[in-house]
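Work package 3, deliverable 3.1, input record:
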Amino acid sequence: MIKIKKLSFSYEDKKVLDNVNLELKRGQVLCIIGPNGSGKTTLTNCILGINHYKKGLITYNNRDLNEFNYKERAKLFSYVPQEKGNVFPYRVFEMVLMGRAPYQSVFSQPNRRDREISLESLKKIGIESFKDRLFTKLSGGEKQLVILARALAQESEVIVMDEPTSSLDYKNEFMFLDIIKELSVNNKKTIIMTTHFPNHAFFFENSGVDTVIATLSNKKINNFGRPKEVLTERNISKIYSIKSKVVNYDKNKKHIIPIGGINNEEK
Amino acid sequence: MIRKRKILVFGLLILPISILTFSLFVGRYPTSFDLVIDVLLFKIFGIETDTTLIEQALVWDVRLSRALSGLIVGGALSVSGASLQSLFKNPLVDSGILGVSSGAGFGAILSIIIFNQVSLYTIIFAFFFGLLAVFLSTLISKVYKTNPMIMLVLGGVIVSSVFSSLISLGKYVADPFNELPAITFWLMGSLASSNYSDFRVALIPILIGITGMFLMRWRINVLSMGERDAKTLGINTGLNRALIIIFTTLATAGAVSIAGTIGWIGLVIPHLGRMLVGNDNRKLIPVSLSLGSFFLVFIDIISRTITGGEIPLGILTSLIGAPFYVYILKITKGSGW
């Protein structure tokens, strides 16, 4: 469905992505991992149309994404940012309703149907009771759920998330991952998420989600494939320069445990 | 829900209408209730009543034109303030952030110095220099491409400061007996010289500006989410931002050109609105419009009745508005701020 071919991107003179290739099918979850500054966010920004790349091609069903205007793009891709700081205390429902923006013209306003869809999205995430609360007064985890509801209201095929769990505690992190899993399995949403935790990819694969993972380092995608193939001890040490153990449990489930920095001689 | 909304709409309409009506009955010149009604009957329905030309001029040409000007000026300033606060994601922004007020101020002074008095040219000069100032601010913001909003604010600050210096220069070279008092009075804001021809000149840009912002009010919500979110929500941020800047500039330049620089309203009235109905611009913009127009006519009534002379509006807005603001803050507890 989505293909990235020979994508390169630079900020001014600094090259951040060099010849990146990726392919993603409908309903898949793509996890992008890589060290800080490896270009994960730059890559998602290219997909979202925030960064304008000069070299390479991103296509959706064989159509160049650059041919899409903002509105058309927003109907395909919704976005869940890392953390949402906000100046004005909007109510949760008002926030979610903004997901309907791609369906409005410059001077129009959301109608009854838009309100129903927004309410439906809140229900789907299970936070209907937040409806009238002020967004600014919510905890980090709750905010993230609201933004996810906004993405659902957008009714896009693909949801792009940038380290969505980075500000969440253990419980909220897994609740969030569970919701992503449901969206992928039940709603056939395609998910692209960057993450610092390789185990997220294992989590999805262990739960039977159609998962692929891409590892980004040195401006390139070094490995791409199923988590169990990509996330080996050797690859992890290559990407992050740390020692780790991949353990098996419950027959065929996998989990990765970091055990320490790498010694130079072992490299 | 629907009922609540009807009450709100009714309240928003009744505020400016009632203050407009009230303003016809009060003033330094004593007018009885019947007299005002008679003038209105004569002017609106052509019914012959026992009123003199002076009385007609007083009620119809002075008080009514002045109140109408007050309505559109107050509404324009507060709606522009509310829109720009959301656009810049900054609650401390007011309607003059992009330099329109100081630009208009300089234009007015220039015309006063050139023509030795306040005239129709004052309005025209003020209006176009207001537009020019905003145009310069946007030009400066394009010099270096980084966060466009921060560059715009910086551009506004720089242009404002340049025009403020030019205003000081204007005051310095002005004739201290004729021109300087006119300049000073103009800069402090006043509706004293308002008449229908001025009103008509300012009405068009103000109406275009307010209508534009009113129609875009939900979109302003989305823009206040920031550049990246707004883009991924399908909004052409560059185009929409430009539209809002154009609308706010037209409205503010129109307002400043007939009333002079009036502070406070463009900053604080939107906040009163935020405390009363929340931050959703679908409600906030109409509420700011209603409150702003009500408040300025209210202040203007005080400015022309409380003493024998006229007290400039710029002085009264904050003197009277500040305690009022604190009172609302106390009863609403800030509602989320």
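Chain A touches chain B through 36 residues (CB under 8 Å).
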